[in-house]
## 1
Amino acid sequence: MIVVTGASGHLGRLVIEDLKQRVAASEIVAAARTPEKAADLGVEVREADYDRPETIKSALQGATKVLLISGIDPHRAQQHAAIVDAAKEVGATLVYTSAPKADTTEAGLAADHRATEEYIKASGVTYTILRNNWYHENYEQSITVAPQLGAVYGAAGDGRIASASRADYAAGTAAVLAETGHDGKVYELAGDTAWTLADLAAEIAEVTGKEVAYQNLPKDDYAGVLAGAGVPAPFAETLADVDVNISRGWLADTPGTLTDLIGRPTRTVGEYVRSLLG
């Protein structure tokens, strides 16, 4: 039995839909903080609140594999540890969605992922770690407002981003969950093509026929732009830090591992732009 945590979220839903094409629905359990939000997935649903360990232990009963989709709370490393402990207790293999180069990057966003990876490895649980590069969907708002602003803003310089669609990562995750041979592996997952924010601006301009250029800003100025657009200040600082690390090559690698897992090319950022604006 495969238990997918965070099942009512964007990634969790896509993983379950893909898994249903690979294994019987009766072999899948959707674990969610609010079970009602996962009731439409066509599989068994169990409550799993990251802040209530007793619900996690119950949700994982009978599991052979557990997908730990990383949380978004400030104390997510502690939340993750509770799922690791429960997976070990039931004797399940753990699959964890981590961050690119989590063990070496200086990006602040990866700190909790690094801590979780270390906890997983120290726990003795059988594991597979999926280090997902950036998602195309992370740029949805930037893409949709760029034609009106005439610009894509950032602090990434000419750093390259090997992003893929959320559906691509979900398919890769489902493949790992449904197949054997992935125990003990750490996979760096990314799109097939790396692009710059200037490339993104050019794609938007081509699709819309409007003038759109990339405006590279100092880190603090970019954080200010994000805060002015309504992004909470601490998260704006985190996103600006991400861009600085992109400029240093953090997200540039295209190892091809995701394509190997899903058996097809990943969706390009240009295709994503066209799906939003075309």
Note: The chain has a mean pLDDT of 96.
## 2
Amino acid sequence: MVFHALFNRRPAPEQTPRDTDADWEEIGRTHPYFGVLTDPRFRSENLTEESLADFFRSGEHQINHEAGLLRGRYPDFAPRSALDFGCGVGRLTRPLALMTGDAFGVDIAESMLAEARRQECEGATFGRDLPDRHFDWIVSLIVFQHIPPERGYPLLKALMARLAVGGFITLQFALYRDLRHASVPGGRIVMGEDLTTVSNIEALRDLAKGEMVMFDYDLTVICAILFNAGITDLELSHTDHGGFHGASIRGRRTA
């Protein structure tokens, strides 16, 4: 198998000694909105009707922006269904539902899903498991960077198996970090004078429950998964979250 050969060319992945699912359950229980966008206005004790409206408005702007980029590249872009992976409280699921009429938000944290369901929106459905169906547009932004890669790669493969032929993707991954973040838990790749693989996975053991961790991914593995899923027409753009560098990936399944 292609994937078997690919992964066997690399050292066995480190096993992350941390339950990141429990982290997100705790974040969803205490600060569900701040856990999605780390602006002090979105902490639970600071939430107002105005800040909550701003929070969801930011999701509308982001989805409209991403849709515009895809429409500029693919004039026939007109999805009738969408999957929001790592939906949290539904910041992106809601505008996806308004745009397509059929959006499914997936999240590992029941506390996040409970809050998402509390903010009703026609056409939006939420669940913990990936539905067994195909979607015209699969979206996952600022999500995989919080999932250990040894779990994230199989999840990405499972997601792409649910993309309809002719369907579109909008994904984002953290790929490397500045030297100032070399010791931050979860790091694999640091950009200095050259690319250096680092291992600070053990530092995860010392973090308190409910901390957000940033994990670096390998673009070679990401592309292999996408290409083998028939997504061969891709466009990448640089992202920088305070020294954690990555890529937004947009594309289409052609086969």
Note: The CA atoms of residues 67 and 217 lie 25 Å apart.
## 3
Amino acid sequence: MSTKTCFVIMAIGDQEIDGQKFTYNDLKGKYDDLIKEAVLKARPNLEVVRADEISLPGTITTDIITRIMHSDYVIADVTFPNPNVFYELGLRHACRPGTVIIKDKSGPSVPFDIAHLRYVEYENSTAGLKNLASQLSTYFDHFDREPARPDNHLLELAKLTSYEFQNYKKAEELPPEVQAMMGLLGSPALLEMIVRQQSGEAVDQAEMMQLLFSNPSVIQPFLTAMVKSGDLSFGNLISGNLLPNK
């Protein structure tokens, strides 16, 4: 079983609220000793990563965006009014469910635009760590039970209105044999000649070759399938005998 992942979004560089300054080391300590510890108490086998563990502080890279897009869970600490945090939270909300918003109880109020969303308040203490771990465990269990259930306003509205997101997934390529059959269905005259030949009737090989090569969308998968199956050799290609007689 593959290890599930949890990406932590939070302010990383020096911050200031109401004249009180918080250094990088202060925030790193909160992450290591409280947030990450609480996550691992809730789910010991999770892979937990913060942005500065895969990128330079203050930068948003492909690695970070990939984590935002694909992590099973994302925890967003919105204690500080940090633009990077809210940008990354917005990206996650647009991608998929599975996000827990948290904030330090001693910090400022949650911004209006996300105030309607559920969030977990924590205290930076031993009791606070235990309580945060318990609530995270509850959220993780909920996400596991209903992985597709929207957890933010954007996804709720998308579901309600049947909004169709841009689909960048590559279409699965059909096997050559299937492509060949689809091509034959698009050329009734050629299909008829093949059926006649397979029934033992003599057909004009030159006419069959002309029909095949007049339509590249038919011949390309047709030849690919035959080469793959061993039914086509250079000799019978030259002779025009593309299909084995019954």
Note: The chain has two domains: 5-160, 176-239.
